[in-house]
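Final report, closing paragraph on structural work. Over the funding period we assembled a curated collection of sequence-structure pairs, and we close with a single example.
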Amino acid sequence: MTEEDRLTKSKSAPDYYLRAEGITKVYSNGTVALKEADLEIHRGEIIGLLGENGAGKTTFTKILSGLLPPTKGRVISPRGPVRFKSPREALSFGIGMVYQHFALVGTFNAAENVALSHDHPFSPIQLTTTKKKLQELMDESGLHVPLDVPVEKLAVGEQQRVEILKVLSRDVDLLILDEPTSVLTPLEVDELFSLLRRLKAEGKSIILITHKLKEVGSVTDRVVVLRHGEMVGDVPTAQASTEQLAQLMVGKALEEASSAVELQDKGLPAGKRTRANVRTKQPVLVVDGLTVKGNTGEIAVEDLSFEVYGGEIFGVAGVEGNGQSELVEALTGLRHAESGSASINGKNILGLDPREIYMMGVAHIPEDRWRLGLVLPFTLAENAILGVQRWEEFRGPMSFLRWGKINQHVRELMDRFEIRAAGPNAPAKSLSGGNQQKLIVGRELAKDPHIVVASQPTRGLDIGAAKYIRDLLVEMRNKGRAILLVSADLDEVLALSDRIAIMYEGRFMTIASPSDLDRETIGMLMGGVAVKEGAA
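Its predicted structure, as stored:
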């Protein structure tokens, strides 16, 4: 074949599935999210898309999936330029995205939510077909969810599975996953990655947005790195070291970036190595015989008893959906307890409303920062005083709010907790996920609480933000505060906790020192298999 023939064939049959050229996105508030970003996507490959929070990863993929239009640039396919006006148009083309912010109808069950993305969603034939397809996908992927329960009553991890199943049911050619593993167990992650490899073998294209470099190394073919809206790296995974990727992501010196990767992989914050022995003689939190029902009326927490002392991090690990969310909600006044007792420094908290518990020195970092942690249309200043707006320093004559003092407080939070935002009047929805989480943590820790109830505190955060939050928790522990840490990240729980409880079906299978539990034992306990080793 001559060179002219090869060029002719290349023009008639491009070897890419989709190509983004010069994509720039400038939001209405002037924020430049993307600058001249290029990416070529081939069939039968898995691309890892890396970058810190706010780097532009989600904006870029929202443009590919039809949710946002680019300010400048174009997306082309072998058939010519494409410009999707909606995600439905992108789905019809063969592009599906699982968003970090779930797009589910809370009152609908899983089958109905999945059926919504199809034509004639609620016809008996379509619902029957959808349920059959879902069952096949769940058996194949291992991502099981109850099909007849309203999704608003499902745990966050289960809702994530519904989102993934919804897109997989459309048999897309390009599957985009935004932090899909942040609410999955290690076993579910393995099953998901096995599914992605099968889809790749079938010729599908996959973009995996993640902060976890171990995941990139285990499942991707190519790694693309965004930093401050610019594509700064595009390398084959086999040729990329974790040090190189970290340096591309965070723009730091190689040694510093490598240290950040090591800390992320091992879950070890710097403060862990220099902890002070400050555990109090008396517990701060005492829970005795606590029983709590879930959203569907079943017993979610059953006759649970434990204590958390000042100067310790008490970690709770387990597969999501085993009562962790209900436990946290009962202790923070968001859910009624059926029986039992719980007290903070000897004072009962069950039956009190969240504000009363708040005023007793309890800080709550919720698992769902968008539903429970922030009011997204509110400004940073408005969000920063939620729950403390009655502080005397924020009130003037006739209880009018003193916005000058409040804005000063917010600027101090921005400096202390490294919150990147335009200013106190910027809407919370304009912040990246990591900065939203820092705002919540800053607001809660600024109260100098007696106990911090932290549920999934680093979910979806990049290396730097996750390490920063973990260091803050360790710092609070070292100051003698009590920390109740609930996390689906097993490495995080093992690295941070002084004692760890494994939760299964509303009960603690064991409470032990992390050093007494190996991963095999933990896996068995998380699956409900009682073992003698490490039991306390």
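The radius of gyration is 24 Å. Residues 268-361+451-536 form a domain with the Rossmann fold fold (CATH 3.40.50.300). We thank the funder for supporting this effort.
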